[in-house]
Write a structure and sequence with these properties.
mainly beta
Length: about 150
């Protein structure tokens, strides 16, 4: 499967049965369920979960020009889950907040057998930590100082 050009292709099947790699060269690949293939995202966007939910792949490789767009809606994040390795390679992170808001301190947004690379850019309200197999998104809570006279 090759996704090319503008627009969004949404996969919403628990088991897409095509064979061969999945490559996103333009626009957005969104959805949940599983692709039984290696995923490559080149200068395009992967939006796991169509808001929230899990997008499963054998492995995932992002280029520096790619974006992982995760949705947060209450306790549930949009998440990329790979049976094999994930390479973030400096791609961008985008966060979309649903009606349920951000209710958790931490969200696992990517998980594989190994995780290499980091996000090249992260929205200023968030930070990401890495533990070798997961990318964990946390909200930055800004302290406010009030002066009372």
């Amino acid at each position: 499967l090759v996704k090319d050009g503008d627009g969004t292709l949404t996969l919403s099947n628990a088991g897409n049965t095509y064979s061969g790699p999945t490559t996103v060269d333009g626009g957005t690949l969104a959805g949940f369920g599983a692709v039984d293939s290696d995923l490559t995202v080149n200068s395009a966007t992967l939006a796991p979960g169509v808001g929230v939910g899990t997008f499963n792949a054998k492995s995932a490789t992002f280029s520096a020009g790619a974006t992982l767009d995760v949705g947060l809606d209450g306790a549930d994040p949009g998440k990329l889950l790979a049976a094999g390795p994930i390479d973030l390679a400096g791609c961008s992170l985008s966060v979309t907040v649903g009606n349920g808001g951000v209710t958790q301190q931490n969200y696992v947004i990517a998980e594989g057998s190994s995780l290499t690379g980091t996000f090249g850019s992260v929205p200023s309200d968030y930070r990401v930590s890495y533990n070798g197999t997961q990318a964990i998104l946390s909200r930055n809570y800004h302290a406010l100082l009030f002066l009372v006279k």
